[in-house]
Amino acid sequence: MAQWTARDIPSQEGRSAVVTGTGGLGFESALALARAGGAVVIAGRNPEKGAAAVARIRGAAPGADVRFERLDLASLASIADFGDRLRGERDGLDLLINNAAVMMPPARQETRDGFELQLGTNYLGHFALTARLLPLLRRGGDPRVVTLSSVAARSGAIDFADLNAGRGYRPMRAYSQSKLACLMFAFELQRRSHAGGWGVSSLAAHPGIARTDLLRNAPGRRSAVGLARTLLWFLFQPAAQGALPTLFAATAPRAKAGAYYGPHGPGEARGYPALSKAPPQASDTAAAARLWEVSEEMTGCRFGQDKTFRV
């Protein structure tokens, strides 16, 4: 495909979006959607960062329809509260971008519900959020869910015997598992939406290797990956460039339901949006169905066959 950029985003006037994450890729996605005329909700756990993101967007796009809503993806109660608030104030939702993530805390941490932090935040939190917002999405116009994966998914494996890494925690292995789970979820959501007639398109995207604070915030600036991010900055593409595959999946008329998009360059590390090659393990439909069922049990969230959310 041609070198697609944010300038190619069609008008988002009359469309509504929820983007998780207040910085980095989430911020760039929210900014681009707001500039295109969309009504954007930035969802994150830190009100100060949320307010700063909203102010920056309004400064760059005067008149932008953007606001912050508190959402802690590491808390099922917070996710439920967020879903209740949105369902109480609007009739539909057109776009959900499952973007926020944590990466490689050196020591094992848990969410408020006892899940390993990366699995719980990156995957299970977004699984539950999508379930909570599905009734709104089903009433949206050309509704899409875009879930972010990572090049790390290539080395990922779903350890059903120890999903929460309770027997032995390795930061990168846990991160790769969470991002593979996100990719499998995106594919399985599309299969179930098609089979159930939900009318929601599910797509996946990854940013390649982008300059965000994700690496620094969890392992720390003095860690090996944090130092690599600082000293080898020239190997990382800007966050705005890294957000392009997400934005293409979210808005491009030719983006295909069930597809996976990433940068077009060598190793899919950088470049413009293009179809990405999913790792073989992401296409294991039996494992994806099992993961879905396990995730429903862990979160208590069910994707109903009607328009009413069920728990």
Fill in the keyword field for this structure.
single chain, about 300 residues, alpha/beta, Rossmann fold, two-stranded parallel ribbon, 10 helices, about 40% helix, globular
**CATH homologous superfamily grouping:** NAD(P)-binding Rossmann-like Domain
Order of helices and strands: EHEHEHEHEHEEHHEHHEEH
Strand content: 5-15%
| Computed Rg | 18 Å
CATH class: Alpha Beta
The parts where pLDDT drops under 50 for at least 5 residues are 223-234
Number of domains in the coordinates? 1
The total of helices stands at 10
- End-to-end Cα distance, whole Å, is 42 Å
Number of E strands: 10
Strand order of the largest sheet: 3-2-1-4-5-6-9-10
At CATH level 3, the topology is Rossmann fold
The level of helicity is 40-55%
Mean pLDDT over the residues: 92
Largest beta-sheet details: 8 strands, mixed
The CATH architecture term is 3-Layer(aba) Sandwich
Shape: globular
Summarize the structure.
Helix content is 41%, strand content 14%. It is α/β, with parallel strands linked by helices and 311 residues long.
Explain how this protein is built.
- The chain is α/β, with parallel strands linked by helices and 311 residues long.
- It has one domain: NAD(P)-binding Rossmann-like Domain (Rossmann fold, 3-Layer(aba) Sandwich), CATH 3.40.50.
- It is 41% helix and 14% strand.
- It is built from ten helices and ten strands.
- The chain has helices at 24-35, 47-60, 76-89, 117-137, 171-196, 214-217, 224-231, 239-242, 244-251, 285-299, and strands at 16-20, 39-44, 65-70, 95-98, 144-148, 201-205, 210-211, 237-238, 260-263, 273-275.
- The strands form two sheets. An eight-stranded mixed β-sheet has the order 3-2-1-4-5-6-9-10, with helices on both faces. The protein has a two-stranded parallel ribbon with strand order 7-8.
- Helix 1 links the parallel strand 1 (16-20) and strand 2 (39-44).
